[in-house]
Every structure is written in structure tokens, then in C-alpha cells.
Prior knowledge:
It is built from 6 helices and 6 strands. By secondary structure, it is an alpha+beta fold. The protein has 2 domains: 10-116, LON domain-like (Archaeosine Trna-guanine Transglycosylase, Chain: A, domain 4), CATH 2.30.130.40; 125-204, Methane Monooxygenase Hydroxylase, Chain G, domain 1 (Up-down Bundle). A 5-stranded mixed barrel has the order 1-3-4-5-6. The protein is globular.
Amino acid sequence: MKEVAILPEQAPAMPLPGAVLFPHALLPLYIFEPRYREMLAHALAHERMFCVALLRPESVQWKTEDDFFEVGTIGLIRACVGRGDGTSNLILQGLQRVRFADFLQLHPFPIAELETLRSDNETTVETDALGTKVLELYARFKTLGRQLPTKIDRYVTDMTDLAMLADLMASTFIEDPVRRQQVLEELDLNTRLRLVIQYLREETGNAAA
């Protein structure tokens, strides 16, 4: 039976440079700043969840909510190892796209009121064709020596959840974090697949593929 997490109405948010978390993806994090140690303690004491938000490229560090994107992903702490110096290593698993509707606090760490974002995953003949093109591009990546871990690679060609396929390819192969953010924010499945195809083509250096 598929595990279903009950999402909170509010949760901490961690703005990060270059990091875009997708649903189902795993993100290893090293927590060392005092404010994020406090955030982690808060999360572990509550639902074991917090959000990851991408820092805007023009912002060196965040001071207000304008310094990071308003759409992120809430994740579940799957594993956490604390160290004697107060730092921690953890694995965060993405659960759901969210929008930060408001902030209950920004300091020492943000706590946001969350709006859950649901994708339009209705499939059509076009959706299936776009999914096939994504798999063709993945096959090209494999010829270039870039592929998913073996356990995932074994079943990716039989993946029927095309929303998960789009997110998996974006999180793994699209290098530009702003482009990954665009894929994350796109809720229409066909449009998201087209974005992934466009960016994967450019990653392979063959826009005509």
C-alpha cells in the first residue's frame, strides 16, 4: 500500500542556492548554521517536515521572502544523524509542491503557511507521445554515460506516472536550477513535459532532436 503523508498547514522553509527539491526525490543536506539547527529541532519535534525553496539568482543570501521563490516542495525527513558538534546530516524526501501563502515568521528561520499545489495529470494521446520523447532523450543521455542509478533505471522505461517521470528527469539531468524551478512551478503535465524535453535537448547539445 502506498504511504500517504498528511501535510501540515504550516511548516518551516529552508531557502537554498541552487537546490530545487521535487516530489519523490531525495535530497541530502548538511545542517550546520545555528538558525537551521533550530529549524531542524522544530521539524523533528513536530511533523518531521520542512520545505526547500530556491534562492533567486540575483540574491547572494536571503533576508526577506522576496529573496527566494514562492513555490517550493515540502519534504519528509527520512533519516537524520546528529553529531557531537551540533551539526546534522539528513535525507529529505520530497512530498508535494507548495506555495508559500504567507509567513508566520521569517527569523531565525521562516515558517510558512502552505498552499498545496495539485498538478493537472490528466493524460491524453499527446501526453503519451511527450512521455515517449522524454524516454528517447533519456536513452541518449545513457549513450553519453549519464544515467539514473541502476535500481531506478530498471523500471523507468515502464513508468506509467508521467508526472513522476518529468520530475525525475528534471531533477536528475537539468543543470540550471532556474530551469528546474520552472519545471517545478508548471502544474499542467503536458506543458511540464514539453519544458523537460526542451531543456533535455539543450543539455545533450542537440535542440533538433
